[in-house]
Amino acid sequence: MLEEEVADIRIGFEEARRTSIESPGRMQSRYDTMGVEAAWVADGLAKNLKSKIESLARLRQLRLPPAPLKGCVGAVVGVGTPEGSESIYFILPGGGGQTVQPSEKGAPVVIVTPGSPAGRR
Question: What is the crossing angle of helices 34-61 and 2-22, to 10°?
């Protein structure tokens, strides 16, 4: 899932970078900002790509604890309500905010990072 995001962001970055490089050096009119805007997009995508690659590297190096007793990296935490519904969270060092569906019958699992508001608690 995160690997697919990295691949998609990389494609977008390359397209924006190519657009900014191939745009004419001078503006054709005062409204021609294509090169500048493409450079801004490429810069933002480069930062996002770097962040995703770092998250992916942290996930690949992660060694899960056998059976954590508290909410730490690698723990799966279920939070129930009095009505009987349950939300399941997987605490990981990267990929926060993504939802994983383990099976058709299983409840969706939301990935939470320690740096997120829920992960800091």
Answer: 150
